[in-house]
Protein 1
Amino acid sequence: MIPLAIRAFNPGPMTGAGNWTWLLRGRVTTLIDAGTGEPQHLAAVHEALAGGRLDQVIVTHGHGDHASGVIGMAAAFPGVRFLKVPWPGRDEKWPVEWQPLADGTRVEAGDDALTVLHTPGHAPDHVCLWHEPTRDLFCADLAMEGGSIYIPSAHRGGDLSAYMSSLERVLALRPARLLPAHGPIIDDPDELLRGYRAHRLDREQQVLQAIHDGLNAVDAILPRLYPGIKPAMVPFARDTVLAHLEKLEHDARVRREGDTWTDVP
Ligand SMILES: [Zn+2]
C-alpha cells in the first residue's frame, strides 16, 4: 500500500497549512477524507487518478474540513460512494448518500483492506483507519505533530474521557506510523501519544487544583490555565476547560451545579 498525500488547499486558522487527504489507488481506489471542495483539490485528485476512476471516499469525521468536500466530489466523480460512521444531526449537513461504517468494519481500499477503528473524543463519529500489514494508521484528527488536538465540550460533540480511551486504544496497537489529516507524518507515534496523555493529565491536575483553590467557574479557571492567551483563542480555551470539567465530573471527582464546579471530597 502506497498512500499518496494530496493537499485539500484549505489553509486557515483552524486547519494550519490545510488538510491532507490520502489516496489509495488500486482495485478499489479510495480517498480518505473529502477536504472542502476546493477546485485545486479536485484537480489534484483528478491528476493523481490519471484517467482512472475514484470508487469511494471514506470520511473520518463530520467536521467541515474533512466532510464538506463530498458535495464537490459527488459532482466531479460520478458514481463515487461515501462512507462514514453516522453522526445523526450532523451528516444531513452534507446531503450525499452515506454508507454507514462501524467499529471493526473491514473496508476494501486500494488493493488491500483497512480496518475501521471508532475513536471518538475529538468528534463522536471520529475514526482511524488501520492497515495491519504495514502497521500504518490513518489517524485523522486524533494526533498532530507539534501541537495538541482540540477536544470540544459535550455540546459541541467532544468527549475528553472518550478521547483518552481512544489514545489508549491506538497506543496499544503499536502503530509504526500515523498518517494525519494535519501536519507531517508521525514516525514515532508512541512518543507523541504518551506526550498527549501526560499533557492532558497535567492539565487535569491544574483544573482540580484550581477548583480546590476556590476557582469554581470556567472563566475563573481560564486565566490560570492560559495566562496571556490571545483574545481570539478564548472561546476554544474556555471550551477546553469545560471539556476537562466534564471529564472530571464523569470520573466523579468534581460536582456541577449550574455553572459552578466544586471538588468532591
Ligand atoms: Zn476535526
Note: The mean pLDDT is 96.
Protein 2
Amino acid sequence: MIDFRSDTVTKPSPAMRQAMAEAEVGDDVYGEDPTVNALEAKTAALLGKASGLFVSSGTQSNLLAILAHCQRGDEYIVGHQAHAYRDEGGGAAVLGSVQPQPLMLDDRGMFDLEVLDSTVKHQPSMYHFAHSKLLCLENTFDGKVLPPAYVAEAQSLGRAHDLRLHLDGARLWNAALSEGQTPAEVADGFDTVSVCLSKGLGAPVGSVLVGGADLIEEARRWRKMVGGGMRQAGILAAAGNYALDHNLDRMATDHANTARLAEGLAAIPGVTIDGPHTNMLFVSFEGVDPTQLGEQLAKQDVLIFPGATIRLVCHINISTEDIDRALAVFGGAVQELARP
Ligand SMILES: Cc1ncc(COP(=O)(O)O)c(C=O)c1O
C-alpha cells in the first residue's frame, strides 16, 4: 500500500519495535522512567530548551502549553486554520476557560502582523476584555515553512505586547531540514515548543513539549490532571529516542520524494499543483471526479483522501520506487476518468 493520506500513518520498523521491547522502564509519574527521562532531555537539548515533557499526542502538547501559559479568562492568539485552534476540539476553551482569538491566515500560514498588532487587547485592566496572554504560531503549516524573518518579526511584536510565545512545531523537523537550520534555530525565541514524534519521524505515539523548567513543571501538573500521566511509558518513549537517533536526517528523502512526485504529476494533462512544500503537495485534476479517482487509485493500492484539492504526504513508509509506481497509477487513473 502506498499511503499518501498523512505522515501519521507510518508503522514502526522492526528495529524501532526492538528498541521498544528492550526499553528500560520505571514509573514515569514518579519521574523514574529512565527512557522517558532520556527522551525528554534529548528533545529539550535538540531544541535548545531547558526541559521537556513526553506526552501522548500533539493535541495534548498544545493544550498543556496553553494551560501552562494562560489562566481562566486569558486568551491565546492563533491562526484561524491552525491546528491548535481548529483541530483540537476547542480543548483550551473547554478545559481551561481560555478564549481563542483567531486571526486570518494566508495560504502560507501567516497572519498580517498589523492585524496582530491591533488585535492584542492593550488594556488588560479593561474588564470588557479577555487578557491577551499567548501568541501561537505553527511551523510547518500544511508543509509550508514560515519564513524566519516573519517569525522573528511576529516574535518581537508579541514580546512588545508582553505576550508569551508558543510554537506548534508538529513538523518543525521538516522546517529545519528545508531551511538548512538546526531544530534549535527554528525553536529559538519561543517560550514553549511542541514537536511530534509520530509524524515524519515515524514513531507510533507521542509528542514532546519543551520550554523553560517552570513552564514544563506547570505543564506536567496539567498533564496529570487531564489523565496523561503514564506509568511505564518508556516502552513508547523508546520509539521516540530511536526516531530521533535514526530518522531525523532521512526526512530529506521525504522532501526529495515529494519533489519527484510533483515533477512526475506535472506531466499529467489538466493537473494543478501547489508545492512541493517540504513533505507535502496539493493537487487537483481538471474534469476528474476526486471520489472516483480515490476509488480507482485504491484498487491499485494507492491511498489518498479525495477532495477538490488532494493533499499528498510523503513519509518513511513511501520509497522512491513507490513514487514511481504511484506516478504510473495516477497517470492511468486520470487518463481513464478525465471527462473530455
Ligand atoms: C500542525 C499539527 N499540530 C498538531 C497536531 C496534533 O497531533 P496529534 O495527532 O498527535 O494529536 C497535528 C496532527 O496532525 C498537526 O498537523
Note: The first strand starts at residue 2 and ends at 3.
